[in-house]
Amino acid sequence: MISSIALVLAQAGSYGSILVYETPKGKAGWDRGYATATVLNENEAVAGYACETVGNHGEAMFAKPFVWQSGTFRWLPLGKAEYGRVFAGNENTLVGEILIDYKTLPAKWTADPKVGWAKPTLTQLGSEGGYAIAISETGTIWIKHAEHITCLGASTTRIKLEKFDIVGVDAKDRAWGNQYSSLGFASTRNGESAAYLEEGKLNALPYKVKARAVNSKGVLCGVEVDTAVQSSWGPTERGPVIVADGKIISILLPKNRFSDVRDINDSRQVVGSFNVAESKPKKGESEFHSVGFIYANGGIKLLSPPASDASDFSPLRINDRGTMVGVSTVQSRYRIYLRRPR
Known about the structure:
Helix content: under 10%
Structural class: mainly beta
Number of strands: 32
Strand content: over 45%
Largest sheet: 5 strands, mixed
C-alpha cells in the first residue's frame, strides 16, 4: 500500500546552531577538504571524519576520525594507523575502520568510564580486513568483510553474505540495509533493494525501496526506485519515502534535480535535503545548493542555513530530542553544525 504525505512547505522553527568543525580553506575541486558527521547520540556527542583533500578520485578514506561533545572537538586516537573513519555509534562506543599499510581493519573507540570522550580507547577488532559498520544500543557490532558479515555480541557469528550493505540496526538487533545483485559503474549497486538480517537470515522487503536509515522500532526511511528506468548510475530514484506498518509513505517535495533522506528518529521525524539551482553561482562553487528539510507530523519544513555566510545546509542525523547535525559549504569549505530546536 502506498500513501502520500501532502506537500506542505513552511519555514522550520528557530534552531540554535553550534559550529562543530570546519575544514581548512582550500581550492575548489580536488584540492579541498571534506568532512561529514555519521553519529549523533542522545547526549549530543557528534562523531565523523574529515580529510584535508578529497583527491581526484574522492579519497575520503584518507581521513581522520573525530568526536565532539559539549563544545570540545577531539581527534580520535589511531594507534599505529595513519587514517580512520567512524561510521556508527551508541552512547559510549564508536565503530568504524582504521587504515594500516593500506589495509582496512575494523575498529572501535570507547569512552572512558570516568572522563568520557576526553580519553577514548581504540581497539582493533581482529586482523581480517573489513570495517565495523553498525552497533546496537546493547553493544552488538556488525563488521563487513569481503564475503561475509561478522556479528560481535554475546557470541561471535559469521554469516556468509557478500552483497548486503547495512545502514543501521533496531532495538531487536536486526540489521537493516540493502541487498544487491552485482556491482556496476563506479561501484554502484545493481538491483539494490531494502532487506533486514535477523538471526543469520536475510529477509527482503516487498517494496522497490533503497534504505537510508532505520530507527529503533524498525521504521525505515529511504528512496523509492523505478527499476524500469535505468542509467549507468542504477535505477531512477523517484523520491524519499518512509516504510512503516506494512506500507510506503511518500514524502512529496518540490521538483528538483536530486532529493534524499538521511535519518529517522523514534518519533518518525525524517531529515534530508534537495538541490536547487543557483541563479548566479560563484566562481569555483557548485551550480546547485542544498536545501535541508525535516518531515514531522505529516508536514515538511525547510531548514534555513545555520550562518549568515552559508548558503545551504544538509542535515545528516537527528536524535530523539529533535536535535540534528549536518553540513554546510562556504567557499569550498565544509562546516559541520549541531542544531538544536529552541
